[in-house]
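Q: Now give one record:
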Amino acid sequence: MMNRLSPSILAADFSRLGEQIREADEAGAEYIHIDVMDGMFVPSISFGMPVISSIRKVTKKVFDVHLMVEDPGRYIDDFAACGADLITVHAEACTHLHRVVSQIREKGLKVGVALNPATSLNVLDHILEDVDMILIMTVNPGFGGQAFIGSTLEKIRRLKKIIEERQLCVDIQVDGGINEKTLPVVLEAGANVIVAGSAVFKGNVSENVKLLKDIMTEAENKRKEA
């Protein structure tokens, strides 16, 4: 699976949001990660449909929309209409997870399912064949800038093994506490879609993207040689 970088705009300077998205795009980021928080599933409140619609014209990169909201099935049509390419929902927020996954698929979009750090991989037993990506949260969701939870590495490894045993083509995304120090270890564990917020948007965006992409390219080359 190809490595891809998905900068999280939650960490961007909102007064320069369009400009910073362009910088990340031009520096080589494949996705743009958009955290949608409702103040109920997680404590914080963030972006909604109008913001996503307004930044859609800034870039053609994949809009990787992460719904940290209760009962996300209510909003799938709206997020599809405002420009999402990939919608990830939390297993913990869905009473009928398969139904929500099907809703996203029916819109012609890619589908992701997210798991909080304490959520077992067992919830994926009957859904893994139906999704494009699993997001392993490496912090508890709701706030940017948190420290990486090291115990999630074993979870990534076990998920990678399950995907390989089932011979599936499913990306593993990680989100939370990712920087130049934690990036190599999550890549080694099996993650290939990397969400980074502060590590991209704090400082020089282009230089930060290049640094992370170089680490990802090195890991990919090592994997091919193995």
The longest strand covers residues 31-37. DSSP finds eight helices and eight strands in the chain. Residues 132 and 170 are 5 Å apart (CA to CA). The helical segments are 17-27, 49-56, 76-81, 97-106, 152-165, 183-189, 198-201, 205-225.
